[in-house]
Structure formats: structure tokens, C-alpha cells
Amino acid sequence: MPSTFLALHYHIVFSTKDRVPLIDASWRERLHEYLGGTVGGLGGFVQGVGGVADHVHLLVGLKATHCLSDFMRELKKASSVWVLEEIKLREFAWQEGYGAFTVSPTARPQVQKYIANQAEHHRVKTFREELVEFLKKAGVKYEDRYLD
Q: Fewer beta carbons under 10 A from the terminal one: N or C of the chain?
């Protein structure tokens, strides 16, 4: 085959350090826009960004040349700096880890809708409950002590 063809889409989830609800509604949309722009600046493409006070969700497409851990390190670093400089929230930081789940092309619209409706979704489910559900659906083994 003379070329490479691929579709690498990830549903990425990560939280504020200690899940402190620091992402205020007054600047949340600006953060989401910044995250989307940063994804583009890193060579990926964003298909959805959403979240609530203690975590964010992204649906991103990455190239074969991307290393997910490098991509996440740069995304979290850039957005932390943005919050510190633009919002002046000195206590802001992201939790060290993240969840990343592959998404098939046919499932992308459902994931986009899910990400867009985070505020409504989290009226009845905590971030921890949501994460455990994702891990179980994906067949990822985990230890409870690493969920908080």
C-alpha cells in the first residue's frame, strides 16, 4: 500500500488535583476552548470538549506519529499554565493520571453527545462512578486505591 490510512480517536478524561471543584462555570467554556486549541496546536484535532467543576472530557483524533503520553503531558502542562496566567488561580493543577479510551468511527457521535451533556450527566453520577463505568466497559483492570 503506498500510503497510511488510519482513524485514531480517543475519549480522554482527566481531573483536577484531588478532584477539587476548581473549574468555575464563569471560565469553564474558555478553558474548553483553550484545550481544543491546544489539541490543534499539538497536531491533533478536537471533536468535543466538555466537563464540570472537577474534570474534563475530550474526544480527539491523533496521528500515527503521536505518542499519547507525550500528547497528554503537553496538553495538561499548557492548560495548567493557561489557568495560572489567565485565571490567576494559583492552587490549580491537574491530577497526574488520565483515562484514554479508543472510540470507533460509528461511536463518535454518541461520545460527542455524552461530552456535550456533562453538566446534566453529573447531576446523578460522580466522576468516580463514571470512571469505574468506563474502566469496566473497556475491560481495564484497576485498583480502587488509584481511583482517587
A: N
